[in-house]
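testing teh design pipeline on a random one, pls ignore if ur not involved
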């Protein structure tokens, strides 16, 4: 991840889709990746996505989202 953040950022939509995966480990990793790709160019769009995710997130994720 730290080597090529641009490569991860290109898959932003897939990562955001994974926030709704039935597997909790995939959701957890998607959340970590989402945090890591936030930058000044995409902060508004990603924060909007994170707020939407907050409405349906597992209780264990809500604290870290807030």
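output:
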């Amino acid at each position: 991840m730290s080597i090529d953040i641009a490569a991860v950022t290109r898959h932003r939509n897939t990562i955001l889709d994974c926030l709704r995966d039935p597997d909790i480990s995939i959701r957890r990793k998607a959340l970590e990746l989402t945090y890591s790709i936030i930058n000044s160019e995409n902060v508004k769009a990603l924060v909007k996505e994170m707020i939407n995710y907050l409405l349906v997130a597992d209780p264990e994720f809500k604290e870290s989202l807030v």
